[in-house]
Amino acid sequence: MEFFRIKKSIPFMRHALVFNAISFITFLLAVFFLWYTPLHLSIEFTGGASMEVKYDKPANIEQIHEVLAKAGIVGAEPIKFGSAQDVLIRLPVKQMENAESQNAAMQKLSDAVMAALKTADPSATNTKTEFVGGQVGKELATDGALALLFVCLGIVAYLAIRFEWRFAVATIIANLHDVVIILGFFAFFQWEFSLPVLAAVLAVLGYSVNESVVVFDRARENFRKMRKASIEEIFDAAITGTISRTIITHGTTQMMVLAMFILGGPTLHNFALALTIGICFGIYSSVLVACPLAKYLGVSREDFVKTDKKKESEPEVISAAP
Amino acid sequence: MNKYPAWKYAVIVIALVIAFFYTLPNFFGKSPAVQVSGLRANKADTALIARVQDALKEASLSATSVELEGETIKLKLADANMQLKVRDALQAKLGEGYVVALNQLSNSPEWLHKLGAQPMSLGLDLRGGVHYLMKVDMKFAVDKAVDRYVGDVRVLLRDKKIYHNGISRNDDKVIVRFKEKAELDKAIKEIGSQAPELQLRDTQDAGDFVLTAVMRPETLKKLQDNALEQNITALRKRVNELGVSEPIVQQQGQGRILVQIAGCLDPAQCKEVIGRTASLELRLVAEDQAVGQGRDAFERYRNEAAPFGTEKMIASNGEVVLVKKQIVVTGDKVTDAQPGFDSQNGQPTVSVRLDAAGGRAMLQTTRENLKKRMAMIMIEKGKPEVLTWPVINGEFGPQFQITGMANPNESKNLALLLRAGALAAPMEIIEERTIGPSLGAENIEKGMNSLLFGFALITIFMIAYYMLFGVISVFALGANLLFLVAILSMLQATMTLPGIAAIALTLGMAIDANVLINERIREELRNGMSPQMAIQAGYDRALDTIIDSNITTLIAGLALLIWGSGPVRGFAVVHCLGIVTSIFSAVMVSRGIVNLIYGGKKKVNKLLIGNVNWHKSDVSTAKAAKAAKA
Lengths: 322, 630
Prior knowledge:
By secondary structure, chain A is an alpha+beta fold. Chain A has helices at residues 16-36, 43-46, 61-70, 99-120, 134-162, 165-189, 195-225, 231-263, 265-296, 301-307, 309-313, and strands spanning 40-41, 48-54, 77-81, 83-91, 125-132, 192-193.
């Protein structure tokens, strides 16, 4: 079996402007939605309390809303969570002077919610309760930002050593734009942004940088092989030569992610969702955005040859084109 | 060509065999168990096994196995229901001198156990349990200390007849005003010798001489460290009482304590026990009821009601003590308790310090009750326990020593308990997570299902697309999974749902390396290389790319490891380890198999790597086209 029987280099670079325009518009849209409907952060980041309730048949959110209102519980907001039977109820937290009383109040509130739900439907069971203080949430948000910063700097540093700073910058811009787009999706659909989602975003960032590495690696090889070709032709050949591998590896990773998305249950649902968006946009941006960016930044043959002295001296297996 | 030296095969085979044995215990799972251990003088031994077995027989319960391991007896049981029944039965039968705790034991056979191969432990989200992050209110501890210094300074100045113009407190400063410079100097001298931990500064303000005292930074730090340690001790004591094995109580970050109890069956009870506060009381022993001066002076009251005006209590070592109802000093007057050694005979001691009011009460009591005994009682949840009941050997005030401990360890424990009882800084739960056991089982199932399903999808695709090389790739991927699980088991890592997700994701990403290799081999074949050359070139050229891509992924993994917390850290650990194992399995293991199949053969006409023929006729034209363009 063979999916890709590409005989000639596809002139990707000729359409660079179109790709850049698409990227730019998606990016702006993502930023707009992030501003317009901010991320629906999980209580891990905001601080607060929540409980998960499981029913033995699909749960009716509106009915739960009514039941809670009737029981006089103010501010509890039930939302669907994962499967149809699972409901996540966010509870309001009042900042109390005294720790004891806050915990007692929380306990009382969750007990009241369960009592109300049980009278309405005896099959309701409380599977999980969670309470996070505001301070912890703030720290998690800071730590997340720090982790993102570290990943960016680490990758830029590595690529700058491995290739050249222009590639490093092009790659990181292309991939950060993925991160913004993932966040944009989460903001637009108001999916819950939790700690596992953050982990997925960072993991996919490290992963899709690979694609740029593979393409640039091939470009470097092509600079040696195709001595007279223009930058565009070299990138076109590099992208064409690696596209089959790029799509297949992302496809296989996506198979795993898809399995988690379908079978993983509520906790892994959004995690897999973030990965899926990341993988799809990762292919696109790390190849079709990073290469034009590198070109605009002004990479030249010399940049490759300079960083590639060691390899230059090795005998080449394939002779250069005339 | 394409032959591995024998040692490379040996490395691969040995690694696979070791990984297999260390992965194996995870398949046997764990059984509910109960473990019994002795307190203090009571030892778990063969005699106790007999008692345990008798107790089981009596209650008509049964255990699958009863074993003595070190100083604990471990009973493996059929199910969780039986586990609870057995615990209750044993608790009732053995009494207070033994700790009966719920546990889980590996079902793997003895020989695996002897190899040190143990299954991974399951995290809260897979087993159910409670997780608390508590914050110790350091400000409270500091406030209390400052209040105490205000009192101490006031008493000191009065005792030394130093006249002042009022003592006040401003934030964490103690401020004393004087009319005369001479009085100020006297005060500086006295306070300096009595409380060297205070930093003194004198200023002038509106005609008054003002003395400002603050705690030295090292004193402040020690105070905070003590408050934290006190709270951890108190929490540990309470959590142990729940009778669950392997609870986690540890410091996490500045002034925070993490409490995790996996397999907690009743979250409400756990919370109640953790949230409870202890108090300490010092009372005189009811000497008029005592028979002699021995430790068994009150033994005859063990099964009798306490006489009027006294209270019967059990000491932590099982002795019966009658104490007077009247309280001499309460725990909030204890400012410090530190283990140490007697300067004369080198015996372990505990030095206790009381505040000024406590010191006065103590002085009066000790003066009137020389050579009598005083009990130090810890009250938790309304249940008193006598920590120690030493003889009053002298007349003393706010500072005294307790002696008679058998070893330094005991004096350290007593000091900790005294401090823990002395109302430490209050704690606040700042993060709480309760996961029901059914949700845990469901999470395992979902995690495993997605892993298996994803693996199956990849297997089908790889074999259909790359044929024999697909089979080899899948084998390498399986080896990767084996290595990963084996390393996690060796490290005794705690498996969580994000951990399972990380395994799945890492496998999904790891196949990347084999795709790279296979694509490269195909390409080289297409370019007209001989099969053997193509294998060589494919592996060699793909290696650079594989290492590149793994390094960038590793950077992301490390960031998660450093800044991630809780579930994310579990994800990161597995992710990082998986990247490392994937390089070994994708490159070494798969190459090993390829070499085994094709290596050394003189003539290989075709590689079973799927169709690569379509390109052959076009090669020359495509190259020519490219060249023409250039």
